[in-house]
Amino acid sequence: MFNKMNEECGVFGIFNHENACELTYYGLQALQHRGQEGTGIVTSNGERLIQYKGEGLVNQVYQKENLKNIIGIHAIGHVRYTTNGGGGLLNVQPFLFRSQKGQLGLCHNGNIVNAKNIKDHLEGMGSIFQTTSDTEILAHLLKRQAGSFIERLKESLLYLEGAFAFLVLLENELYIALDKYGLRPLSIGRIGDGYVVASETCAFTTIGATYIRDVKPGEVIHIDEKGIHSHHYALNHNCHMCSMEYIYFSRPDSDLLNVNVHASRKKCGITLAKESPVDADIVIGVPDSGMSAAIGYAEALQLPFEMGIIKNKYSGRTFIEPSQALREQGVKMKLSAVCSIVKDKKVVLIDDSIVRGTTSKKIIKMLRDAGAKEVHVRIASPEIKYPCFYGVDFSTYDELICARIDVESLRKKIDATSLSFLSIDGLLDSVSHQGLCLACFNGKYPTHLYENIEDANVEIK
Ligand code: SF4
Q1: 169 vs 67, 173, 449, CA distance in Å?
Q2: Which residues are designated catalytic?
Q3: Which CATH number fits domain 259-434: 2.60.40.650, 3.40.50.2020, 2.160.20.10, 3.30.420.40?
Q4: pLDDT tens-digit readout, 69-116
């Protein structure tokens, strides 16, 4: 489902390619679903870094003319969705910093849970922040450490708690760092004589790069003219990849930790069919992220899979519309029920998740208005009962309908004929690896949360 929840960004980087800037443009376009509010590119020609950024979609921000001016052989790029630090051009990444030691480009995906604490300490010691984004903290920490760049980077990362995938570009070096829990996806690949890094492997397919491997939790990868060098700033942490990446965020053609997103969603649908079967006429999915699970559900119960809802790909985003009346109109602009398919039918409606419940209610009404006799809702993920502090934009209990009411009350509220969710065990079986963050389903957070600043007790050198 679209606009149900949003994540804080996607990152892309390329080292040693004559078309670094153009390929970054196409890589960012492939990652556009991870953030639509702003985008930036920092390139290096080996001697000097140049920055270009703007608010809006990738194809709105970069025009042919300005792409020509940001030439380089290395680049990092970013697509932004704002959940922390506020919006505005100032906070669009990558950031570009200049110091006596040289220039540094920096971008990040995720959320640093002790950011406020560290920022307070740094400001107390005289640091002046240019932005309100927590990404900038790394630049200030780097400045305070001693030793080689890799030593300073590893030392700085030790202060940070939470979910992060950092890209740092120097004149002739690229550094890639993943948090010690592996909460955000980050893969590296090869193109020609160069290397690429991206939040999702779909960006590799788009530019013709070959996947090499995923970045490991706590790993820092350094790329220079001699090749790839692997370091670790933190050891012995198990992977806790965000399960929402499989359920909702990532593109179906991406592989996360060698598991294809479409295949895992389809398997969730098969498991859901075993757990909560329905005697129905047709199975339909909510576009886009409910479709794979709907195919699996229909296949498992040998029911016809139909296109009962069509999405208008070219409509705007509903959240910018101010009034409730206009928001309702916005949903209709995006989704249409196909009357001739659903009329007089017992329909199973598969969606990937329920966050606030408002969109589900509108879709069910739309199907009933189109003549559906029964609407059985099956959700291909468990109930989201706990907030996310790692960069997904439901960070309070109030935003989560399943934190406030039980399944039967929710069924009545959204006017479904029946309603069931995939179990947590069913999700684990379907995604087929156990290294998942399930905190929004079971409340077991893999990191410290530092809701109280004094809990963090950080001493910065
Ligand atoms: S709490 Fe939920 S949304 Fe947040 S990282 Fe964990 S699985 Fe993902």
Answers
A1: 19, 6, 29
A2: 9
A3: 3.40.50.2020
A4: 778 999 999 999 865 556 688 889 999 998 777 899 999 998 899 999
